[in-house]
Design goal:
Serine Threonine Protein Phosphatase 5, Tetratricopeptide repeat; 75% helix
Length: 531
């Protein structure tokens, strides 16, 4: 799941009042209007009849108005003037810090809040704002320290408890974060942000069930807030409550119809239930809202692949690569689909691009080796699988595929060695037992071949290939009755298994049962086997 919404700490700015400053000489109406009207403040400043203190107040008040309009350069210029006129004007330092913060000039903001604290070391506004600036610049330890000072000054400051919790969470100090959120909830049982914050902590700790309960509490307090449904949906997905997740994503979408991640994540939940049509519909809606969402294209390709819509999957991976030409996974996955479509040259080109982007990509080497194997280029297949093994010595499929390449070249001893490595890495690797059995048979060791086919059948009693192959080995050993039994089992598992009919026919013929032999040969021919 993805795209959690960050909870930003808010900044406080001390606002000017409408009261007439002491000893004011300018027009009283201008002073009355200065807290809402820039021109009124300008007239006071330009009149130049006020003392330094009052002139500073006029600059400060005008600066606040510029700050509210987002005109930060003008605001800062006024705060500079106010501070020059009154170096102890703590509110001007705080306001200038806020203007710097909103421009993401966090170091300058911290410097201003620090100056304010030199004037009043117990200023809660300066402390909380500096803490927010520390947190925004990734200095979480300093942020926690400032919030701790504020909380010491006022243990019932639930907002600072929440913000300290957020800073602790950023440090992955989840227990401390949960404790602060819990304390905030004790102070105010309706603190919806504290419930949501604690839920985020619990989810990060892997306590999804408890997180779901806290998100539920947040929803009860604020049922129209889409993010709480979204977060609860993510938590429900983690505990495999896909229906609950889908329901919550739907509630998110009702409240925020253009929130792309809700469509994408609902699609993921639908895909987890194998509801690929619904998943594809949601990915498509997400792309309608954001045509540059590579994740939606990538995941829709996966869903289309699951539906065996290989052309659609290839097209979607292509869109991913238009938007993100360095997406190695998209090249790898498109290559895998192209192999299924038997477009080996195109697949090999995709794997080559993945390797160019990441020369240590063991998976790309392994998959390219498999494509080369399917194309019949055994020499290069062996080279690629060898490189994959060098990069990832625990890649069972690389050993298996290299074994297949050796087998195709009649290199039975080398094949057996690789299949054995694959089995060591995964003792339940059925296909490796079947392949090793074939390699043993290839070098005439039918006892070991029968043993491997038997082991494969213990792991997968419905493996028709293993029955047919064991039947062949048993027939070579002269045990035609057992061979016929194995062929019959293979046919029962796959009624269209032509070679099993032919092999059984040969066994019947050797045993002198010509009618059954002819019947099996006829069925093999009917299924397309001509020799």
């Amino acid at each position: 799941m993805r795209r959690a919404l960050a909870v930003a700490a808010s900044l406080s700015v001390a606002l000017s009042t409408a009261t007439l400053p002491t000893g004011a000489l300018a027009n009283p109406h201008d002073w009355d209007d200065c807290h809402t009207n820039i021109d009124a403040c300008t007239r006071i400043i330009n009149a130049k009849v006020e003392n330094a203190g009052n002139q500073a107040i006029a600059h400060y008040s005008r600066g606040l108005l510029y700050l509210q309009k987002g005109e930060y350069a003008q605001a800062i210029a006024d705060y500079d003037a106010a501070i020059k006129l009154n170096p102890k004007f703590i509110e001007a330092y705080i306001a200038r810090g806020a203007a710097q913060y909103r421009q993401k000039n966090f170091d300058q903001a911290i410097a201003d809040y620090t100056e304010a604290l030199k004037i009043d070391e117990k200023s809660a506004v300066a402390l909380t704002n500096r803490a927010a600036a520390y947190a925004a610049s990734g200095k979480y330890d300093l942020a926690v320290a400032d919030y701790a000072t504020v909380i010491k000054l006022n243990p019932k400051d639930e907002q600072s408890l929440r913000h300290r919790a957020e800073a602790e969470m950023a440090k992955h100090h989840y227990d401390a974060a949960a404790a602060d959120f819990s304390e905030a909830i004790k102070l105010n049982a309706k603190d919806v942000a504290a419930y949501a914050g604690r839920a985020n902590v619990l989810r990060a700790q892997g306590k999804s069930d408890q997180a779901i309960a806290d998100y539920g509490a947040a929803i009860k307090l604020d049922p129209q807030n889409p993010q709480y449904y979204y977060f609860r949906a993510n938590a429900r997905y983690l505990v495999k409550d896909y229906d609950g997740a889908i329901a919550d994503y739907s509630e998110t979408i009702k409240r925020s119809p253009k929130f792309v991640p809700a469509y994408v994540n609902r699609a993921v939940a639908e895909a987890a239930k194998n509801n690929y049509d619904a998943a594809i519909a949601d990915y498509s809606k997400a792309l309608e809202l954001d045509p540059k969402d590579t994740r939606a294209y990538y995941d829709r390709a996966t869903a289309r692949f699951a539906k065996r819509d290989y052309d659609g999957a290839v097209a979607d991976y292509g869109e991913v690569l238009k938007l993100d030409p360095k997406n190695v996974a998209a090249y790898e996955n498109r290559g895998a689909v192209l192999v299924i479509q038997r477009k080996f040259d195109e697949a090999i080109a995709d794997y080559a691009k993945a390797i160019e982007l990441n020369p240590k990509d063991a998976l790309a080497y392994a998959r390219r080796g498999r494509a080369l194997l399917a194309k019949g280029d055994m020499e290069h297949a062996v080279a690629d699988e060898t490189q994959a093994i060098t990069l990832d010595p625990k890649n069972k499929m690389a050993f298996y595929d290299r074994g297949n390449a050796y087998y195709q070249q009649a290199g039975y001893d080398a094949a057996i060695k690789d299949y054995s490595e694959a089995i060591t890495l995964d003792p339940k690797f059925t296909d490796a037992y079947v392949a090793r059995g074939a390699a043993y048979a290839g070098r005439g060791d039918y006892d070991h071949a029968v043993a491997d086919y038997t082991e494969a059948l213990k792991l997968d009693p419905n493996n028709a290939v293993a029955y047919n192959s064991r039947g062949v080995a048993l027939a070579v050993k002269g045990d035609y009755a057992s061979a016929i039994a194995d062929y019959t089992k293979a046919i029962a598992l796959n009624a269209k298994y032509a070679s099993a009919y032919r092999n059984r026919g040969m066994a019947y013929k050797i045993k002198g049962d010509q009618d059954k032999a002819e019947a099996d040969f006829a069925m093999a021919k009917q299924l397309g086997l001509t020799n």
